[in-house]
Design a protein that fits this description.
The chain has 306 residues and is mainly alpha-helical. It contains 10 helices and 8 strands. It has helices spanning 2-13, 20-35, 47-76, 85-92, 97-127, 130-149, 158-162, 165-178, 209-213, 258-275, and strands at residues 186-187, 192-194, 197-199, 204-205, 276-280, 287-288, 292-293, 300-304. It has a two-stranded antiparallel sheet. A two-stranded antiparallel sheet has the order 2-3. A two-stranded antiparallel sheet has the order 5-8. β2 and β3 (197-199) form a beta hairpin. α2 (20-35) runs antiparallel to α3 (47-76), α6 packs antiparallel against α8 and α6 (130-149) crosses α10. The longest helix is centred in the middle third of the chain and has 31 residues, at 97-127. The radius of gyration is 22 Å and the shape is globular.
Amino acid sequence: MQFTFNLMAKHIMSMEPGKPETEKLKREYITFMKGVVSAPLDFPGTAYRKALQSRSVILGVIERKMEERQHKVHDICDEVEEDDLLGWVLKQSDLSTEQILDLILSLLFAGHETSSVAITLAIFFLEGCPKAVQELREEHLAIARFKKQEGRESKLNWEDYKKMEFTQCVINETLRLGNVVRFVHRKALQNIRYKGYDIPCGWKVLPVFTAVHLDPLLYNEPQQFNPWRWQKGPSPPNMTMTGSFMPFGGGPRLCAGSELAKLEIAVFIHHLVLNFHWKLAEPDNALVFPFVDFPKGLPIKVHILT
């Protein structure tokens, strides 16, 4: 969670990890998340009231960042720099202050929550599949050796990322089996007839991705974590069907951050398998209420590889 939050805070508002302001924002964000789907009871002490208070604090931080940028521009008679998303929005859009606040908060929520859960699920599934961990380690060791031979610095680049073929299989299988986003909301804008069913105008439709990703007609042994099913070669007959894999939605509403999310997970896995060995500190399993989460927080014991 800390990894993904720091990443989003850095790229959205150039907030440096570990700084007091960043840590305070993270604490408020955690409180906000705990109450965002709670019963709407606006009484002192409730999770909902605490979430509302934290939301106000978060919006206050974002607004202060906006004002700092605008004052800086006014003082030096220059344009807003586009070093982060906030700078780009201030320079390129005609959005009102309220719209920018809502946008930044929404992106902080969308960019952090799903990615942090996906990384946690990857750690969970891989811990139970030593063979996959070993294959990942071999893939990333090869990347590290190649970088060393070329005398390149340790930071990953795009060419390194493109070599992470088995890593992409692990990411796909994690998203399929973990189902971080379990459904989406859609509204019928007109009367629709679909496969013999009538959907009246104005009705809400909830496509449930879990029902597709765990369908035995589409995936062999769908409850099993099997990243090798995504390797190149002949696919099961129905695997190529449109809509058989939708971790990021689809169509014109496809998640804009899908590739960024996969990149985040791949970079995390790279450093994880190269430097550490891990195992569960105590039994824990994912639950959905309504977001995917681990009741105990998935505590693990980590050992540095020698």
